[in-house]
Specification:
The protein is of the alpha+beta class. Helix content is 33%, strand content 21%. The protein has eight helices and nine strands. Bound molecules: copper (II) ion. Copper (II) ion binds next to loops.
Amino acid sequence: MIVAVFLSFALTTQSATPAPCTGIDTPSASTAERRTALDACATASATTPIEFLLSEMSRLTICDRRAMNLADVAAAWNPKELASEAVVTKLLAMASGQGGVTAGAQIVAVRAVLAIPADLLPTGTLPPTPVVFEITAVPSKMAYDLKAFSVAPGQVVQINFHNPDALEHNLLVVAPGALAEMGVAGDRMGTSPDGKLKEFVPSSPKVLAVMGIVEPGKSQTFWFIAPQKPGTYPYVCTYPSHWRTMNGKMKVVAPPQPAQTPPQPVAAP
Ligand SMILES: [Cu+2]
């Protein structure tokens, strides 16, 4: 009886959560073909494409290859549709990492927001242009070539990562002071059965932005929004045993306040 109730519950739960739309992720598909697949999945789920996109984003894990495919589709979306009040509110919340969204969903949300012309965004929201950094894995040195960079609070950051090394590497931006903790967590994943599957990305709220493993000879781009709180945020490769030397510092620095103009003496009448 109990088993029957459990099975009934499990089947109900399963049917209430449709499987991810795998057609979006066909490796050889163009962005247009991914969009066509998404539209078909939305129709099959009796929802709109934009709602389907948002629901697919909410499924993304902390390190998820599907994020890049969805980000490409989002970047090619009709900007006016993305800029509708209801959608842009959700996108901005996800882009900022609110409500426990994963780093994968943040990547898609940031790219969607970047696709919206500045004049269609609510005033006071994200600057539409990302600040771009190039980071390269130094061959045979277990190190990034860029040891530190600075960004403003809330700035959109784009990292173009290049891996000419013979080893695989990833890049995580983590909370202040969490370098060793996340590095050791990555080391531990080296002996866990699903560590490689998770690309050695610890499942921790201290992981703020994620680029999964980049294979030797490959490059990859990812996006995130810099934290609002000024401070030093380490970035690190959590591939087992890499973190001690393969790290750097992202400094979030508040822009200087405009200098106070001293009061001018009032001329005598
Ligand atoms: Cu590495």
